[in-house]
Amino acid sequence: MSGLQFDQIRLPPECETLRADVRAFLAAEIAAGTFDPHRPGHGDSHNHAFSRRVGAKGWIGMTWPKKYGGQERSFLERYVVTEEFRVANAPVRLHFVADRQSGPVLLKYAPEHIKQDILPRICRGELCFVIGMSEPGSGSDLFAAKAKATKVDGGWRLDGSKIWTSNAHIADYMLGLFRTSPPTKENRRHGLTQFLIDMKTPGITVNPIIQMTGQHDFNEVVFDGAVIPEDHALGEIDGAWKQATSELAYERSGPERFLETFYVMLELIRAIGPEPDTRSAEGLGRLVAQLHTLRRMSVSVAGMLHAGKEPVAEGSIVKDLGTIWEQKLPHRVRELAAFLPPETGNRTTLDEQLSFAITVAPKLTIQGGTTEILRGIIARELGLR
Amino acid sequence: MAGDSDHIVAETAARIFADLADPQTVNRSKDSAWKEPLWRALEEAGLPLAWVREEVGGSGGSLPDGFAVLGAAGRYAASIPLAETLLAGWLLDRAGVACPAGAMSIAPTRPQERIRLQPDGRLSGHAVVPFAPEVRHIAVLAEGKVALVARSACRMNEARNLAGDASSLIDFTGVEPLHVAAADIDPERWLLMGAAVRAMQTAGALQTVLSMSVAYANERVAFERKIGKFQAVQQNLARLAGEAAAALAAAGSAADTLTHANTSHDAVFLEAASAKIRCAEAAAEGSAIAHQVFGAIGFTQEHVLHRFTLRMLGWRDDFGNESWWAAELGRRVAKAGADEFWPLVASR
Question: In which region does residue A309 sit, left (phi positive, over 0), alpha (psi from -120 to 50) or beta (all else)?
Fold first, then answer.
C-alpha cells in the first residue's frame, strides 16, 4: 500500500450559497411543523409531501445528468445538502436510499428506457427504494445468497426471501441480489445478479419486523414465483460482484455515517450552559475535536471521489471511525450530563434524546457493512490479506 | 490546497531524511555524530528557515512548504530541533528580526508559561525549551514582543522528555535579549501554531508506525502463519490505520487553515486545537496497537519502534496537552451556544 491520503478540500463558494438555501428551506419546514429537529424518532421519518418538496428544490439525484431529472451539480454540493438535512433530523427516509445508492446503480447499469422512466421520478421525490441483500441465512456474507432468479419466458422468476430490508413496506422498488448460477470453484462470488423489482409485482409478500426501538423499519420480503421483466436484470448476469464495490465508497463515507446521534451533542451544549465546569468543558471539547476530524475526513473523501480518485481504505475508515463514534456519543454525553443539577432547563429533552439514541446505537455499527467487515476491507487495502 | 512547491519540498526533505536519518542507523549509533551531516543537508536545502523571508535571512518558503517538511520529519522522528527552528524562524520573521545561523528553539511551549519583558529591557519567567542544549539561540514570545536570546545567557536545568530528547527548563530571568521587536502575535495564536506543528509531526510518525507494523505483520510467523493473517491482528491494524488516518486528516486540515489567510480566528482555533487533541489521542491509541503487534521485540532499546512511539507520546505535552485544549475548545463552544455549533463545524 502506498499510504493513506486525505486531500485538503475547501468547499467551493457555490456550496456555501447552497447551504444557505438549504438552511432557509429547513427552517421554513420546521416553522411549518413538518418535523421537530429536537425530537428524532418521533413521528414518521418518511413523509411523502416533504420528499416531493425536496425534489422540487432539485436536491434529490442532484449530481445526475439533467436528461434524467438531475441537476449535474457536484458531489461536494450533494455533501452539503446531505449533512444539513441530517443535522436538522429532517425526514429523508423516503428518498435517501434512492438518492445515495439505487439511483447511481440504475444510472450505470439500467437500460435507457428504464433510466428515463425511473430516475426523473426519484429526482421528484416520488419513489422509495429498498435494498435487498441480506437473507435469513446470509448477512454480511453477501455471496452466500440463496434467493434465486430463474429465466422464464419473457422474464425472471424470483423465489426466496430477503431480510432486514429497511423501507420494504413503503418502497416502490427494490434493488435485489439474486442467484442466477451456482458459485464456481474458482470464484465463490460468481453467480449473483442484481435486479430491479417493482414491489407491486404479484408474488411478493412483505412481513414487518419490529426493531427493539419499537420502530418499524426492517421487513422480511418473501418472493414466491414473482415474475419480473427480462430487462430488469442490471448489468452483467452472474457478475454482480464486480458491480457492488465501486459505489461503496460513497455509501460508506458520507456525513450520515457519523451524524446519526449528533442531536445529543447539541442538547448537551444547551444543558451545560455558557460557563461549564472543567469536566464538562473538557469532555465536550474532545467530542468537538473528534467530530470535526471525522467531518474533515469525510469531506476529503468526497472531494477525492469527485476528483475521480478511489479512496477505498479512506472511505472504509470514515465509516469505521464514524459509526463507532456516533455509537459511543450518547453514552459519553450521558456521562458528561451525570452531575448536572436536576433542574437543568432541557433535562427532559436531553433524557428523552439519550434514551432514544442509546436504544438506536447498537445498529449503527451493523447497518451497511459491519465494523468487522469494514476492518477486513481496511486490512486488505493495507496489504494484509 | 496542496501546491506543487510543497510537494517538491516534501520530496527533498524525505530524501535527506532517508539518506541521513535512517532510523535503524540512528538507533544503532553510539553518539550524535549523525546529526551534523543531517542538519547541514537540511540547511543547504533551506528547510529549517522555510518560514523566514529571504530579506531577513531565510529561504522564503511558504507555510505549506514548512508543514510539508514537518510531515516528512515526523515520518523519521529524528531527534533534531527542526520543528523548533521552523517555529523560531516564523516568530522572528513576524517581528522582522534577522535570523541567526544554526539551530534555534522557542519559548513559551506551555500554556501556563508567561515570559515578560521588564522595564529595564531584561526578561523574566521560565519555560520548558525543547533541545535547549543543542541550540545557540532561542526565539521568545514575551507580551506582544519577540525577543532573540542567546541560550548561553540563560540558566538551564537539563531535563529530558519521554523519548529522551532534551527538554530543559530555562530561566529567562535577568537575561538581556540580543534583539527585541514588536509583533502582532497573541499567546493563543502562538500556541495554536505550535499545536499544529506538533500535530503534523505526530501524523507523520503515525504513518511510519502504521507501515512498519503492517510490514512486520506480513513477515513474522507464529502458529505456522504470518501474524497478519490472523483476524485479531488484522482488526487491530485496521484500527491503527484509522488512528493514523484521523491524525493525518486533522493535522493536514489545521495546516491548510493556518495557511489560508481569509480564515476566521474561530475556525483556526477549531482546526488547530482539534488537530492537537485528535493527534494526541491517535498517538496514544496508535502506539499501544503498534507495540501489541510487535510484541516483546518492539519493547527493546535495539528496535526502532520506540523512537516513534515515545516521541509522539512526548509531543502531546508541548504547546498545550490534549486535555488543556479540549477544555479550552469546550468552553468556547459552550460560550457560543448550541445554535452556533454546527455552523462552526460546517464553516469550511
Answer: beta
User: How far, in Å, are A20, A31, B71, B289 from residue A34 at the CA level?
Assistant: 19, 8, 49, 47
Amino acid at A326: E
Contact (CB<8Å) A285/B338: no
Which CATH superfamily, name and number, covers A245-382? Butyryl-CoA Dehydrogenase, subunit A, domain 3 (1.20.140.10)
In the CATH scheme, what is the homologous superfamily, with its name and number, of domain A131-238?
Answer: Butyryl-CoA Dehydrogenase, subunit A, domain 2 (2.40.110.10)
Domain that holds residue B166: 95-185
Assign residue B121 the CATH number of its domain.
2.40.110
Domain boundary among B80, B108, B123: B80
Kindly state whether residues B232 and B329 are assigned to the same domain. yes
List b or e across B54-74, with b for residues whose CB sees 16 or more CB atoms inside 10 angstroms.
eebbbbebebbbbbbbbbbbb
Mean pLDDT of A277-300: 98
Q: Is residue B219 domain-shared with residue B253, that is, in the same domain?
A: yes
Residue with cell 426493531: A211
List Cα–Cα distances, B98 to B56, B57, B69, in angstroms: 5, 6, 22
Collapsed DSSP state (helix, strand, coil) of residue A229: strand
In the beta sheet, which residues pair with residue A292? none
Residue B166: per-residue pLDDT: 96
In b/e form, how buried is each residue of B97-133, taking b as 16+ CB within 10 angstroms?
A: bebbeebbbbbbbbbebebebeeeeebebbbbbbbbe
Q: Is residue B85 a part of any domain in this protein?
A: no
Alpha-helical (H) ranges within chain A are 13-31, 48-56, 75-87, 93-97, 103-109, 112-123, 240-244, 248-253, 263-272, 278-306, 312-336, 347-364, 371-382
**What residues of B are in contact with residue A317 (Cβ under 8 Å)?**
238, 241-242, 245
What pLDDT is attached to residue A250?
67
Tell me how close the Cα of A156 comes to any Cα of chain B, in angstroms: 39
pTM: 0.96
d(CA B133, CA B129) in angstroms, rounded, equals 9
Q: Is there a contact between B49 and B59 (Cβ–Cβ < 8 Å)?
A: yes
CATH numeric code, A13-127:
1.10.540.10
Are B39 and B23 members of one domain? yes
For residue A222, the surrounding DSSP H or E stretch is strand A216-229
Tens-digit pLDDT profile for residues A83-114: 999 999 999 999 999 999 999 999 999 999 99
User: What 3-state class would DSSP assign to A39?
Assistant: coil
Instruction: Give the nearest chain B residue to A382 (CA atoms).
Output: B214
Residue in the structure block whose three cell numbers are 464486480: A242
Which chain B residue lies closest to A279 (C-alpha atoms)? Answer: B327
**pLDDT at residue number A249:** 65
Query: Which chain A residues are Cβ-neighbours of B250 within 8 angstroms?
Result: 289, 292-293, 296
Give me the mean pLDDT over the A124-137 stretch. 95
Report ipTM (2 d.p.).
0.96
Q: Does residue B154 sit in the same domain as residue B40?
A: no
pLDDT < 50: residue spans in chain B? 1-2
Of B278, B341, B342, the CB nearest to A290: B278
Best residue of A11, A264, A288, A380 to probe chain B, by most B CBs closer than 10 Å = A288
pLDDT of A382 over the 60 cut: yes
Residue B70 in contact with residue B76, Cβ under 8 Å? no
Cell 540558566, residue? B155
